[in-house]
Amino acid sequence: MNLQTLLKIAEDAASKSSKIIMEQYGADNDIQFKLDKSIVTKVDLESEKIILDILKSETPDYSILSEESGLSKIDKSEYMWIVDPLDGTTNYSKKIPFFAVQIALVQNGKVLLGVINLPFENITLSAIKGEGLFVNGKKVERNSETYQNSQTSMLFETYLDKTDLAILEKFKNASASTSIRIINSACTSMVYLALGRANIVIDRVDKPWDLAAGSLLVQEAGGTVTNFKGEEFDVFNPECVATLGVNHSEMLQILNN
Q: I need a labelling partner for 156 at 20 to 30 A (CA). Which of 68, 176, 212, 245 fits?
């Protein structure tokens, strides 16, 4: 099965799950707490079922790693779907419109394609590695100059622990013109970066399903994604610095100072 066909499968799954998410937006979502104290709602589970049913039907020989149900491994398969059926569940449950559906396909750990749908904004970003960024099916032609701005806008995914607070202090001290936002949805942050609504995303607290698709979308938009050392981003070790329209090396220097 070619990548264009696989992308369409992922886009269809994300679209159908997003429809359910918006139909129940603002309703009583039966919140439960997981072992890590994060929350899950019935909508997370309904969205996940829609996506997994489609992926399993269309690609029965592929493994799947999904936030709520974990790993469904197919022996000898080099392909794996990585799914977040509702990133930003806390936002969603509080009627804060920063949440997303994420689906990525990896081959031996490398992201081949990615889809992120922002249900509230009715926006879908998708990409196949090496083929550019698409927004609602239309290819976006951009270069880094499009995003140059006197103020650096940073989105920070954080637990606000001592390490994260130290990172915030570094960027505050480095530039008074750095605007920092915390929106509690890594997928949304990466979409906003790819769209040029931000210049940098820093994340050291999330999982593969939070960053797999977004890392590809940012790269296909012309951005750079690495770990904190400036090495190649590893989706299974999601320590992430992603930039677009700013000097990536300078951001790493501030981070590691």
A: 68
